[in-house]
Structure formats: C-alpha cells, structure tokens
Give the backbone structure.
Amino acid sequence: MLAIVIAIGAVLAVILLLQARQRKYADFILKNSLCLKQLTELNNRYTFYSDINLNQNHTYDNENFFNDISCQDFLIYQLQFIKKDVVDQIEKIRINERLYDKYLEEIATIKQSGQFQTNAGKLKVEKLLILEKKLIEEQIYHPIIQFILTVTLYCSTINGQIYNSKSKDFFDNDVLSLIARLNKKRGTYFTDREIWNAICRVERGKVSNKMRFSIYARDRYRCCRCGASGRFVQLEIDHIIPIAKGGKSTYDNLQTLCHNCNVEKGDKY
Ligand SMILES: [Zn+2]
C-alpha cells in the first residue's frame, strides 16, 4: 500500500516538475515574443461571429414518411419559420468572410517568430521556437466563413429506437434560392408547385404513429362519420380540413374515419 502511495507521489512530482518547466518556457514566450504581442493586438481589433449553427434534425417513427420526405422537403418546411434567422446567419458569415480576408493580410505583416524582447538565458532556443509556434497557432482566429446547414432525418421505431438516417448539406445559395421560392405566395398558399408539394408532404408526415394511436383512442376506435368499429373495420386518420386545402396536422384537425368513409370524403371538407 505504502509503495503504491510513494510511486503515485513520485509520478505526480515528475509531472509537476515538467509542468513547472514547461510553464517557465511559456511564461518567457508570453512575456517576450514580439510575434505573439502583435498577434494579441491584432486579435483585439477583430471580432468574428461564432454563434452559428442552424442544423435541423427530425425523427420519424413511420418508415413511409421517412422515405417519402426528403431532407430538402424538411428544410423547405422549416424555412417558413426560421428564414429570418437563416438570412441573419448568412449575413454574419459573409461579414466574417470579408473580415477574415483583411485579418489574414494583417497576419502576413506580423513579425517572424523567434524574435524575443530579451535574451533567452538558460532556456533552450529550439524548445522556445517550437512552443512559440504552437502558441501562435492556437491564437490565430479561424472564424466560420462558410455557411453549411445540415438536415438530418432519422427513422425510429414507435418506441424511439433509431435504425436509419439520411443527411444533406445545404450552402448559402441553395438556402437563399429556396427562401426566394417560399416568398412567392398567394394568401396562405405557395405558388411554386414543388415548394407547395414539399410542404404538404412534411405536414402529412407530422402525424406520427404515436399521434395516430392517441387519436384513435380519443375517438374511442370508432369512425367519426358512420360510427363503425370493431375488429373488421379498418380505421384511418383523416385531416378534417385537407392538407391540400391548407389544413394542418394538429389534434383539432384530425379525426378517425373508417376506410370507406375516408375514400368517400377524399379531399373535401
Ligand atoms: Zn365510416
């Protein structure tokens, strides 16, 4: 037991000694490196945006919806609500990009590494140079200068176990062109056919299996139109106001119908 304690103590002592020596080198560089000094001054004059992340994820517990809905469909739908944020972030990244160009130009004019205000004394110059380079590397800003929005869709069982996924990256120009198409509206409808179809697919996909069963339960496993129920009746979920007419997948707008009533009702109110 005592031997172990002594061994651990010895290891700790060595680590502390190494750290102390390393710190001596670091302290010298931080105090005396002309390059680092200039870099710090330069960094103080630049502020880059770093709060940039608009990735979109969603999990479908219904394989048909997962297959039917593309990453782009999902993004189109979401953009209805987040387009202002997205445009803001694109703008921030473009500002970053412009600033970064200037920043790099200024970095190029900074003094070479290896110039110190005072003599290194007992410290090894070789070691100083390696450490200085490392510290300089660490201090140089690497702002986000490219906008990438990643959409990831997952497919899970009704209990939430994920067994499949797909993912796609969108760049600023992709997103801006989708937003431009989303902006073409007549009342609550989108005049771009492809956009409208994408939104309808995602809206339909909002009825998860979990939601489906809770609506059956709410309606007591009966057709809301003809009252049919029982083992031989095929129950389906119906949008009271159809999606194609602007209806949403909300509890208020969903009802249980038997297959026959659903076919008969079709896309009518
Ligand atoms: Zn019925």
About this structure: The pocket of zinc ion is lined by residues 223, 225-226, 228, 257-258, 260-261 (CB under 6 Å). The first strand starts at residue 56 and ends at 60.
